[in-house]
Amino acid sequence: MKVTLDKFEQSIEEHAEKFVPLSGSEKAGIETIIAAAGKTKNINIRISAYDIEKVKQKSAEEGIPYQTLISSVIHKYITGKLVDENAVLKSMELLRR
């Protein structure tokens, strides 16, 4: 069976000789980071009744639990991936001029 590689996989194959094996301690450190990233922690926060109802409405539209939506918004915010739709539309409008 012949396997077709995508561009990313092909790049890995072409540069395989440049990769250096990890030491045991480096591998353990990476595994610790990955394990910690997957852990969750429960918190208690106060949110206005209006905001929580709006979050529940949005989560229903998205088909996900509202706690998951809140967690996703927080994650996107801290990783710089939360985008203001109005700002994007305004930027697009300015680019069209």
Give a verbal description of the structure:
- It is built from 5 helices and no strands.
- The protein is mostly helical.
- It has one domain (7-96).
- Helix 3 (49-62) crosses helix 4.
- The model has no long low-confidence stretch (mean pLDDT 90).
Total domain modules: 1
Weakly predicted, low-confidence segments: none
Distance between the termini: 53 Å
Structural class: mainly alpha
Largest sheet: none
| Beta-strand segment tally | 0
Number of helices: 5
Shape estimate: extended
Q: What is the N-to-C succession of helices and strands?
A: HHHHH
Q: What fraction strand?
A: under 5%
Helix content: 55-70%
Q: What is Rg?
A: 22 Å
Summarize model confidence as the mean pLDDT: 90
